[in-house]
Write a structure and sequence with these properties.
By secondary structure, this protein is of the alpha/beta class. The protein has six helices and eleven strands. The longest helix has 24 residues, at about 250-275.
């Protein structure tokens, strides 16, 4: 079984700089981490391969330093890693990102063989859209299963997967054909802590690089050129001022002051409503 897990390197701080010309994040100016939701996706991909055999492949699109995130995935148990990196991919929104990742997965299939399952985290903490996973499924023409909290079973012979989805109104058990794209929640597992041996093995593995020339994808569908989403303006909201009054003294005295103040506010509010 061949499982691809899509991960993203995101800023580790909310104090990031914005490019004033493109209104995009200057990712090289801030510390980075693996997107927290993706750590659960990596763990689930590794567990699926441990149960059914095959290989887990980590895939990430980003600048050259995103290789650090892929190294972390290798330490966690992934067998291979691919970095999709090119200046042409910079500034991509979710649509352009899904186009590029889909092209990369097709390239991986051409090199290694059919991909049976694609796993993504629910969303990235820098964009919070949750759109890339489902969009990726559309680009590949396969079923999307979102908000997955448990993989109940996989039948490779029948080409089926059964999963549990956590929704606002409860849980839902669904069955889908394979291949499929899953976006997983944090409660699906507890990511393992890489052992020293796992870290040593990860250092011996290479990270394959894929650029625009390696993908069967026109440049106008990637990066800023392929992004219909445009950020018009970015600004920091003004801090709201709040008025607070602190009563000090004996409890009985402060209690009376507080009660009088509450009645004053209630009476004022009632007067405004009657008016």
């Amino acid at each position: 079984m061949r499982v691809v897990v899509c991960i993203k390197q995101v800023p580790s701080s909310t104090k990031v700089k914005i490019n004033p010309e493109t209104n995009t994040l200057m990712r090289d100016q801030a510390g980075t981490i693996v997107n927290p939701f993706d750590e659960f996706a990596v763990e689930e991909a590794v567990r699926v391969v441990e149960r059914h055999g095959g290989e887990a492949i980590a895939l990430s699109m980003g600048p050259p330093q995103a290789e650090e995130a892929l190294r972390a995935a290798l330490e966690q148990g992934c067998d291979r890693a691919y970095l999709v990196s090119d200046r042409a991919f910079a500034g991509a929104d979710t649509l352009a990102t899904s186009h590029t990742l889909a092209a990369a997965i097709k390239k991986i299939e051409a090199e290694l063989g059919k991909v049976d399952l694609i796993i993504c985290g629910k969303q990235a903490i820098d964009g919070d859209t949750g759109q890339v996973g489902p969009s990726l499924a559309v680009r590949l023409g396969i079923p999307p299963l979102s908000y997955v909290s448990k993989i109940i079973g996989i039948n490779l012979e029948a080409g089926k997967i059964t999963a549990e989805r956590s929704l606002e109104e409860g849980k839902e058990v669904v069955r889908s054909d394979l291949p499929a794209v899953l976006t997983v929640l944090k409660n699906i597992n507890i990511p393992r802590y890489p052992s020293l041996l796992a870290k040593r093995k990860a250092k011996q593995k290479s990270v394959d690089k894929l650029g625009l020339k390696d993908l069967d994808l026109p440049e106008e569908k990637t990066g800023l050129k392929g992004s219909p989403t445009w950020v018009v303006r970015i600004f920091t909201p003004e801090a709201r001022s709040s008025k607070a009054q602190i009563y000090t003294g004996e409890p009985s005295h402060t209690a009376r002051l507080l009660a009088d103040r509450i009645m004053e506010i209630k009476c004022k509010g009632k007067g405004e409503a009657d008016g």
